[in-house]
Structures are given as structure tokens and as C-alpha cells.
Design brief:
The chain has 121 residues and is mostly beta strands. The chain contains no helices and 11 strands.
Length: 121
Amino acid sequence: QVQLVESGGGLVQPGGSLRLSCAASGSISSIDVMGWYRQAPGKQRELVASLSNGGSTHYANSVKGRFAISRDNAKNTVYLQMNSLKPEDTALYYCYAHVLVVADKGYRDFWGSGTQVTVSS
């Protein structure tokens, strides 16, 4: 019903930047929150950043001041600009969206398949 496709991951040196994108498509009536989680090997998945349709943002303490989330509601796309990257930012980054599917009665969460970010010299 709803698909999320991420792009923009890759290998970058410490101190570098990357921009992740995630486009949602399918039977979408509206999207409330869009955001990003990440999971490093041997660790639990953690929320990196989220952005509501009303403009409210949330960031993990570890990325505040370095990462910025934004979205283009017309394109159902969310972005994550990552600056001053550190080796500890290395993880698989997942996009998610809280979506009201056409003809559904409530919002549901949908996930992308993930994009790898590796920060290494």
C-alpha cells in the first residue's frame, strides 16, 4: 500500500557530510510524522530525528547541532542532512512515516529497507 525508498547513504570520512532522502509513495491520504531511525551492529534501533506535518522536530541528543531534518510535503519526501559525521554515526539508517492510507480509519507506521552510512578514514 505504501512504500518508502531511501537514498543517499555511503562511505564518508570523519567530519564529512551526507544527505539522506526518503520518498513515500502509494495509497497515501496524509502523512503525519516522518523521520529516521538508525541501527548499528550489536545495538538497538534508535530514533535519530523526526518531523511532524505541523513542523515539530525531535533530535537524538547525539546528533543535535550536526543533523537537520526537513521534508517536502508535496513530494512526500523527508531529508536528513548529516554534517560533522563521526565514526559512531555508522549505522543502517531507516526512514519511517506515520501514514493515513486511503480508505483506512487510522494512521499506520511504514518503514523503508534502510540505507547504510559508514563513517571511516
